[in-house]
Amino acid sequence: MEVYDAIERATVADLRRLQLERMQASFAAAYAGCSRYRAKFDAAGVKPSDLKSLDDLRRFPFTTKADLREAYPLDLCAVPKETLARIHASSGTTGQPTVVAYTRGDVATWSDVVARCLHAAGARPGMKAHIAYGYGLFTGGLGAHYGAEALGCTVIPVSGGQTERQVRLIEDLRPEIIMVTPSYMLAILDEYRRQGLDQRQSSLRIGLFGAEPWSEGMRSEIETAFGLQAFDIYGLSEVIGPGVAQECADAPGELTIWEDHFYPEIIDPETGEPLPEGAAGELVFTSLTKQAMPIVRYRTRDLTKLLPAIGRPMRRMARVGARSDDMLIIRGVNLFPSQIEELLFGYSALAPHYEVELRRQGRLDQVRIRVESRPAANPRLAAEQANDLERLIKSTIGVSVGVQLGSAGSVMRSQGKAVRVVDRRAEPS
Ligand code: DLL
């Protein structure tokens, strides 16, 4: 196994020692530098010096999105403000925004973990990386950019949008690597077809897709269309940005967590109790090296499970299919948009685009799934398959929905993170 960093070859015991050392230092810095952490620790009756082993972590309080909102903009910083090198914002669509801050050291750590992600996916110095994650406050664009640069790639900082130009640049500059949300990759694929270009002839060989859930169906759609290898990259602004965990070429299917910087736990989302390896629950992260804004037991709301290490000493996590707050409860039945995506990909005449629309009729919630036929599909077959999808959703998920089939291009395309659910329940029916 060819690795990027020495720590990827360390023993588990060495990794645990390093984690404890780093966690102790991080808690001490958070307590000394941030009055909010000090107040939280004091209220929970714990001091940084109570962390004598990694098992003691469970005694420390969680940090939630609400804590970040209350601390808006920079009250969770543990360093003097003039030492901040960068500020980003979390992509929350509802409520008050939250911002996150980085020192120069944090930017270097972040670049390094993203470089490790790229390397683990097979990227090498000298390759060209087309970056179509949005640049700006979102961590995707600049996070990917600095990581690719740190690895020694030639970076093409395209950002999201202007899909026609994306295709043009891929064709002209011939990058081997693309970093983009999987839903926007599908929009790029549509554009290739619209221009009558053969995307299989494109130079792309490696894709790092993340920032949103994407199914195995979506993976094979992208891999088959472009003849590239699609890898999952995970991260969140509050913890650093992209680069917290990565699907490695030598351990496909799950994501290796860069545990030397981000310590994972899985908890029961109801009780907050830590769960054993292998149990499904909510992912929680504690940063180990972050200076500007250390994060202690951050509740991500992402649902997954921890899995044993393979090859590297770091534990892995299952791909994130859902967030606890994505769950729709329709007439008492839990429904995640990703479940619909899994089923949709089984139909050859339906395009890989969908939107879940919620409406209220009387007192009942109605769900309409908007799908569209593939451009070249037989319209009768597409209609049959849309009906069949409706039946399949009822029989496998247990909720009655209406599947509405539109023409090719009728479902809104994403330019970044896809918006899967449109809630029209407050509108008059
Ligand atoms: O989305 C960081 C990122 C950028 C990750 C580019 C990967 C690639 P936020 O905007 O703060 O940060 O959103 C974080 O997005 O809690 C997950 O719910 C979701 N998410 C991120 N990566 C994945 C993934 C960036 N690979 C939130 N699979 C997280 C599923 C993901 N969900």
Explain what the structure shows.
With 429 residues, the protein is α/β, with parallel strands linked by helices. It has helices at residues 12-33, 35-44, 65-70, 104-120, 139-151, 163-173, 182-194, 216-226, 337-344, 379-396; strands at 84-89, 99-103, 128-131, 154-157, 177-180, 206-210, 229-236, 241-248, 251-257, 262-267, 281-287, 298-304, 306-307, 316-317, 322-323, 328-330, 333-335, 350-361, 364-373, 402-406, 421-423. The strands form five sheets. It has a nine-stranded mixed beta sheet, with helices on both faces. Helix 8 links the parallel strand 6 and strand 7. Helix 7 packs parallel to helix 8. The longest helix is centred in the first third of the chain and has 22 residues, at 12-33. The mean pLDDT is 96.
Short recap of the structure:
The protein has helices at residues 12-33, 35-44, 65-70, 104-120, 139-151, 163-173, 182-194, 216-226, 337-344, 379-396; strands at residues 84-89, 99-103, 128-131, 154-157, 177-180, 206-210, 229-236, 241-248, 251-257, 262-267, 281-287, 298-304, 306-307, 316-317, 322-323, 328-330, 333-335, 350-361, 364-373, 402-406, 421-423.
How is this fold's topology laid out?
Blueprint: H1 12-33, H2 35-44, H3 65-70, E1 84-89, E2 99-103, H4 104-120, E3 128-131, H5 139-151, E4 154-157, H6 163-173, E5 177-180, H7 182-194, E6 206-210, H8 216-226, E7 229-236, E8 241-248, E9 251-257, E10 262-267, E11 281-287, E12 298-304, E13 306-307, E14 316-317, E15 322-323, E16 328-330, E17 333-335, H9 337-344, E18 350-361, E19 364-373, H10 379-396, E20 402-406, E21 421-423
Parallel strand pairs: 3-4, 3-5, 5-6, 6-7, 18-21, 19-20
Antiparallel strand pairs: 1-2, 7-8, 8-9, 9-14, 10-11, 11-12, 12-15, 13-14, 16-17, 18-19
Helix pairs in contact: 1-2, 4-5, 6-7, 7-8
The structure holds 5'-O-[hydroxy(phenylacetyl)phosphoryl]adenosine.
Residues 90-91, 133, 138-140, 210-213, 232-237, 241-242, 300, 302, 320, 323 line the site of 5'-O-[hydroxy(phenylacetyl)phosphoryl]adenosine.
